[in-house]
Amino acid sequence: MGNAATRPDFWETAAGVAVARFRLAATVRRWDRGRDAWADAYTSFYTVWTWRSLAANVAGSVSLGEPLVVHGTLRVRERVREREQERDRPLQGEGEGGWGGGAATPPAPGGDSGGGAHQPRRWVTAEIDAVAVGHDLTRGTSAFRRVSQAKPLLNTPTGATSP
For the CA atoms of 94, 96, 98, 100, what is the dihedral angle to 10 degrees? Predict the structure, then answer.
């Protein structure tokens, strides 16, 4: 459960398969006994992947900021990419000792923290291969519209024979 953090991107693959992708923000809420109220803790972001008819329906139904319930398979992956350009000075605002590499995470302990050559950029992604996506009805109402599935036309007999 969370909120749509981006609008869905929709496209079709070369094979004609519909794909939609969007980011989901899920904020943990905790009971604060001191204030006697609920308080937001941290927010996690997930990339949600949808396919085929679900993708088309997500693209036509989901808007930025809407509360959603997503059901699917969670995948957590570490990604690595070689950097195209290295910097040999700290980035603006990093001050003394900044590692200056421009990546999402600092280099591993014992690595070259001075912007040394050829350090790969590493990051972790959390993705959900969704099988169902819907609006969170504890937070509002929704109007469902059934989509008719395209049915293939049947050939009607013409009396002609094939060669």
Answer: 90
Considering only CA atoms, which of 76, 109, 115 is closest in space to residue 97?
115
pTM metric for this prediction? 0.68
Tens-place pLDDT, residues 65-110: 999 999 999 999 998 887 665 444 343 443 333 333 333 344 444 4
Structure tokens at 19: 């794909």
* Cross-strand partners of 43: 27
**Can you give the length of the chain in residues?**
163
